[in-house]
């Protein structure tokens, strides 16, 4: 690669050819023996870049000018792209985004797990805009910027970006950020309200206002009026998540449906649920299809949450057992089973990062197994679940690096084959890679 200084008045600017894309969505170049990560650059492009910071042989930079653009470059749909840190790939066509994510998954399998799937599954994808149903919006009163700001953090900063709207958030919320800011500014303690959590179901929009000081009766009235005007459920959170309670209306709940399985799940606004409802429906259907539970089989679902996979599996299998570390989610999973008239599933609380071999539910036989861990993966659980001898395992992952690591363990240490794998584009316009993999014995 070559580097050439440009313009006497801009001595820090340099040119580079972009060779790859980093997991965070930055272009990667190699200039004068240094690795350069360039925000806004794409593989195959030649760009003029400005270094922002240097450390340990790595340069972080941003694009000043695209000299030779990639054919996959498009105009970002959001006016705040490049300032807001919420998205990093809006300048890439959706088709190319999916190819890049598939390449990331392939590379992690090769480098970390030393494995390769026998088959690559077609990507699951849907709408690229207005899909996000879960988010934590930062709130900050900044007089120099005109008042209260509501939105996501700026790129590589703790500051809140001054957003007029967000194109990836569900438009019922993403298009009214200034109204939310005006609402907070009119409260008695705008400096003591640091966060609004967005939680949207199929039936309603929920907003959780985190406040560090007591709210007045007048504040309650303003918040309730806002909820009434927009048809939102308004929740307050004066402390930790256990303090979340509904302010308006007097009664309400959030739910989403999985129509392929005639299942409806209720959840609290601070519960973990998938951010993309359309893709979640497709993902659950694909996971059940790949696992292929039979009417006489028993299925184990680890990291089960509030039953997102367990309940659909219970519609197909003789018995489904879900295990989750968060007691509140297990409580909701039990309630969701009752809600859907399912008496062939059960749920247990267990820390899956510890030795689970002696727990009663581990003493049973399971024909098939599903796991959907957090970003840290399931390395601690893999040896224990491998000893169960399930004929097929479906692994849903939100981190290709830990999936690759765990895949290597299952294949090289426990005799499974990596039968198939593919990406799930849960977060379009971001570099986040969700994926699914199928393992079979022998």
Summarize the structure in words.
The structure is a single chain. The protein has helices at 94-113, 171-174, 177-185, 217-230, 277-291, 310-316, 327-339, 382-386, 400-413; strands at 14-17, 20-21, 27-31, 34-39, 46-55, 58-68, 134-142, 147-151, 195-200, 205-210, 232-237, 245-248, 254-258, 263-267, 298-302, 319-324, 345-349, 368-371, 392-397, 416-424, 434-441. Helix 6 (310-316) links the parallel strand 15 and strand 16. Helix 1 packs across helix 9 (400-413). The protein has a seven-stranded mixed sheet, sandwiched between helices. The protein has three domains: 8-68, OB fold (Dihydrolipoamide Acetyltransferase, E2P) (Beta Barrel), CATH 2.40.50.140; 99-127 and 255-441, Rossmann fold; 134-200 and 204-252, OB fold (Dihydrolipoamide Acetyltransferase, E2P) (Beta Barrel), CATH 2.40.50. The chain is of the alpha/beta class and 442 residues long.
Short summary:
The chain has 442 residues and is an alpha/beta fold. The protein has helices at 94-113, 171-174, 177-185, 217-230, 277-291, 310-316, 327-339, 382-386, 400-413, and strands at 14-17, 20-21, 27-31, 34-39, 46-55, 58-68, 134-142, 147-151, 195-200, 205-210, 232-237, 245-248, 254-258, 263-267, 298-302, 319-324, 345-349, 368-371, 392-397, 416-424, 434-441. It has a seven-stranded mixed beta sheet, with helices on both faces. Strands 1-5-6-4-3-2 form a six-stranded mixed beta sheet, with no helix packed on it. It has a six-stranded mixed beta sheet with strand order 8-7-9-10-11-12, covered by helices on one side.
């Amino acid at each position: 690669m070559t580097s050439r200084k440009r313009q006497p008045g801009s001595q820090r600017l340099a040119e580079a050819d972009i060779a790859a894309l980093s997991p965070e969505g930055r272009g990667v170049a190699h200039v004068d023996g240094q690795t350069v990560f360039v925000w806004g650059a794409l593989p195959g492009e030649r760009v003029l870049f400005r270094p922002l910071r240097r450390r340990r042989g790595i340069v972080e930079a941003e694009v000043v000018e695209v000299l030779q653009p990639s054919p996959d470059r498009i105009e970002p749909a959001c006016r705040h792209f490049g300032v807001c840190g919420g998205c990093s790939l809006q300048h890439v066509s959706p088709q190319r985004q999916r190819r890049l994510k598939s390449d990331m998954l392939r590379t992690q399998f090769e480098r970390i797990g030393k494995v390769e799937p026998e088959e690559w599954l077609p990507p699951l994808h849907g709408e690229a805009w207005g899909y996000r149903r879960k988010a934590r919006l930062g709130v900050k009163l900044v007089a120099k910027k005109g008042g209260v700001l509501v939105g996501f953090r700026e790129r590589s900063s703790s500051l809140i970006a001054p957003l007029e709207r967000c194109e990836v958030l569900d438009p019922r919320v993403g298009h009214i950020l200034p109204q939310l800011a005006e609402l907070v500014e009119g409260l008695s303690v705008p400096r003591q309200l640091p966060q609004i959590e967005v939680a949207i179901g199929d039936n309603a929009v929920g907003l959780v206002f985190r406040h560090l000081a007591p709210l007045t009766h007048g504040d309650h009235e303003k918040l309730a009026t806002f909820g009434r005007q927009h048809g939102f459920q308004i929740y307050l959170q004066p402390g930790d998540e256990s303090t979340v309670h509904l302010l308006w209306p007097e009664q309400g709940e959030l739910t989403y449906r999985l129509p392929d399985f005639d299942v409806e799940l209720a959840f609290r606004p601070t519960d973990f649920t998938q951010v993309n409802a359309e893709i979640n429906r497709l993902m659950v259907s694909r996971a059940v299809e790949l696992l292929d539970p039979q009417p006489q089989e028993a299925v184990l679902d680890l990291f089960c949450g509030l039953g997102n996979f367990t309940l659909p599996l219970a519609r197909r299998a003789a018995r489904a057992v879900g295990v989750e570390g968060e007691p509140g989610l297990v409580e909701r999973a039990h309630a969701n089973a009752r809600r859907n008239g399912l008496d062939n599933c059960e749920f247990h609380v267990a820390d899956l990062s510890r030795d689970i071999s002696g727990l009663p539910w581990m003493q049973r036989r399971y024909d098939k197994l599903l796991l959907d861990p957090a970003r840290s993966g399931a390395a601690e659980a893999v040896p224990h679940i491998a000893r169960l001898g399930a004929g097929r395992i479906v692994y849903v992952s939100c981190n290709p690096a830990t999936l690759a690591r765990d895949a290597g363990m299952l294949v090289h240490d426990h005799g499974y084959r990596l039968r198939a794998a593919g990406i799930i584009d849960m977060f379009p316009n971001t570099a986040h890679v969700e994926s699914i993999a199928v393992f079979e014995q022998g």
